[in-house]
Amino acid sequence: MNIVVVIKQTFDTEAKIVLKDGQIDPTGVSLVINPYDEFAIEEALRIQKKFGGEVTVVSCGGPRSQEAIRTALAMGCDKGVQIDETALESVDEYVRAEVLAKAISQMPYDIILGGRIAVDDGSSQVAVRLAEALNIPSVSSVIKLEIENNVATATREIDGGTEIIEVPLPAVITAQKGLNEPRYPTMPGIMKAKKKELKVINPADLGVSGISAKMKVQNYSLPTPRQGGKKITGEPAEAVRELARLLREEAKVL
Amino acid sequence: MYFDTNEDHIMMRKMVRDFAEAEVAPGAEERDEKEEFPLELWKKCGELGLTGIVFPEEYGGVGADYTSYAITIEELSRVDASLGVTISAHTSLGSNPIYKFGTEEQKQKYLVPLATGEKMAAFGLTESMAGSDASATRTTAVKDGNEYVINGSKIFITNGYYADTYIVTAQMDKSKGHRGIAAFIVEKGTPGFSFGKKEKKMGIRSSATYELVFEDVRVPAENLLGEEGQGFKIALTTLDYGRIGIAAQALGIAQGAFDQALKYAKERVQFGKPISQFQAIQFKLADMETQITAARLMVYKACELATAGKPVSQAAAMAKVFAAEVANYVTKEAVQIFGGYGYTREYPVERMMRDAKITEIYEGTSEIQRVVIANNILKD
User: Fold this and answer.
1) Which of A79, B129, B135, B323 could join B295 via S-S bond, C-beta 3.0 to 4.6 A?
2) Above 90 in pLDDT, residue A253?
3) What is the CATH number of the domain that holds A100?
């Protein structure tokens, strides 16, 4: 089974977001594999253990995204591919999906795994667009995955419950929290990772030159800082009256 | 020499830190309270490849450098110094003498399962009358046909009881003084080999510290490590490398206490503002960070020498004495920043301050480190 995992390098979830000249400032921020993509990597390695084959990890990003790919290789993936997005004129979900599709269509694949969302921009688009571009089915937010006779049975989270979907392979599956518990890279894994193949692809070599984003970010703003709580003092009867008034007039929840 | 870390080291540090914070830190307080040995965590360390970092792959190890090893001990000790010393004693004291002095057969039989974490190692040198003066060993070994017969006892043995493989020093010819000492590989379960008292300690309470008792313990002749009379040299060499582990442990304790103190100083409000805005606290934090940075450079320098196969005795002793004193200074200041809360067991700095003390004592007291350093600079 040839397994492809698409991953994204994101800010550490504990990183403090700072805006500089209207842009998000990455200076001094530690970068990690998007946590949902870690579930995808883990699932890929488990599928490989069961069916054999090769796990290729693909990421569209700048030079630092190689760190994320190396980490995936240290976890046990076999090969890495970085699509150098600094060579692209502009990038959005559409562009990423298109270049990923071009790159992946040139490699053998039976299943493509990714995270259900990236914790930075949270658009949940790339994996699904990738499936569209490759003209294969996709199942999102999967918490259980079984594969038999080239058919994937995926349990996915839906509002208020779960849904079980069968799709023929190849397909794109996106991982939701709960799918598995990602492993740590091991010490020998880290030592071996640097000897594994990590190919850097220029998007121009994929024949996608001239592609440009369909979306333009107008403006970034930080959320308004959380207000401190309000303490209502006084006699219980009076305090309850005041609370009801605030809930009705200020919070507007009654 | 840059005393620095590379990309592999950064990835290793992140891996060990993620593991330490997710799986080691949560139970550290309880294990300390109950003096409970971290056997489950030991097994996980083996699965992650943390039990044989510096040994070549052909002997079950990872084949990484000493800096990788120090980072591992540092990151484990940052949240739990007991687990830190368990791995350090296993690697540097129990396994390394087999790697450095063992025959090919001994390495295959004993080092491979130790490096993979399938088995645990310990080192029996100290005795009640032979502490800093390791040459005063009273445990004896007598050759009898194709066996050696060991009698005596060892105290304060880290990983005692839990370890499977023990390196034990014994006197074979008292008239030769320290040149009469030999080292042996003794397996747990050998008839006559038993465990005595378990020590109740001030700190690193979840690490195991036991007495080893030998009553006519017969070990096969092929379990002699090195040659007869070489035991004292084996012990000193082992300690030279072991000190890198303890220096890294001390560094980790200091870093852990500093991280806790820094976080607390930013959150704790007194006189209407976080205490980190008072210069009295700022100067403490500045001094702590400076000392930790200096200690780290010394530890990594000793690591680079060890990796390069150069003499480590002086650099390891300097790193160990310095990092141990930094750990004691930093943990004391961390408790001070926490004030009354720091003195309670509700916050980990109390445990860290107790844990720090041993780093000035074991694998050579700070006084012995100074003897080693002085001997090095005054020789010739």
Assistant:
1) B323
2) no
3) 3.40.50.620
pLDDT band of A28, cuts 50, 70, 90: confident
The shortest C-alpha distance from A241 to chain B (Å) reads 32
- Give this prediction's pTM: 0.91
Q: Residue A216 falls within a domain, yes or no? A: no
Residue A213 lies in a domain: no
Residues A196 and A236 in one domain: no
Are A54 and A107 within one domain? yes
Asked if pLDDT for residue B224 goes beyond 60, the answer is yes
Interface contact A44, partner B, CB < 8 A: no
Q: Long-range contacts: B31-37, Cβ < 8 Å, 24+?
A: B31/B80, B31/B82, B31/B205, B31/B206, B32/B82, B32/B205, B32/B206, B32/B351, B33/B205, B33/B345, B34/B206, B35/B200, B35/B205, B35/B206, B36/B206, B37/B86, B37/B162, B37/B206, B37/B207, B37/B208
* A contacts of B18 (beta carbons < 8 Å): 184
Residue B104's Cα: distance from chain center in Å?
26
Q: Kindly report, residue by residue over A197-248, the tens digit of the pLDDT.
A: 999 999 888 888 778 899 988 999 988 888 778 888 889 999 999 999 999 9
Nearest-CB residue to B63 (from A71, A185, A191): A191
List alpha helices for B268-365, DSSP H: 279-307, 313-338, 349-357
- Identify the closest residue of chain A to B53 by CA–CA distance: A187
Query: Using CB atoms, which residue from B14, B18, B50 is nearest to A187?
Result: B50
Task: Compute the average pLDDT of residues A147-157.
Answer: 95
Question: How far is residue B132's CA from residue B239's CA, in Å, rounded to a whole number?
Answer: 12
Strands (E), chain B: 121-124, 140-144, 147-158, 165-171, 181-187, 193-198, 209-220, 224-225, 269-270, 273-274
Q: Evaluate whether residue A217 is within a structural domain.
A: no
Q: Are residues A202 and A232 in the same domain?
A: no
Question: Is there a single domain that holds both residue A127 and residue A246?
Answer: no
Residues A81 and A176 in one domain: yes
Check B19 against A184: CB less than 8 A apart.
yes
pLDDT at A87: 86
Active-site positions of B? 363
Q: Which residues of A touch B269 (CB under 8 A)?
A: none
CB contact B8 to A (< 8 Å): yes
How many domains does chain A divide into?
2
A184 and B48 in contact by Cβ < 8 A?
yes
**Whether B139 contacts B127, CB under 8 Å:** yes
User: How buried is residue B113: exposed, middle or buried, by Cβ count under 10 Å (0-12/13-18/19+)?
Assistant: buried
Q: Show the domain range for A235.
A: 227-254
**Nearest Cβ partner for A187 among B14, B18, B62:** B62
Q: Are residues A66 and A153 in the same domain?
A: yes
Angle, in degrees to the nearest 10, between helices B279-307 and B313-338:
160
**A236, A189: one domain:** no
**Is there a domain that residue A212 lies in?**
no
The number of beta carbons lying within 10 Å of the beta carbon of residue B127 is 21
ipTM: 0.90
Buried b (16+ CB within 10 A) or exposed e, B259-275: ebbbebbeebeeeeeeb
Residues A72 and A173 grouped into a single domain:
yes
Q: Do residue A193 and residue B11 have CB atoms under 8 angstroms apart?
A: yes
Asked if A190 and B18 come within 8 Å (Cβ–Cβ), the reply is no
Using a CB–CB cutoff of 8 Å, tell me whether A35 touches chain B: no
pLDDT digits (tens, 9 = 90+) for B355-378: 999 999 999 999 999 999 999 999
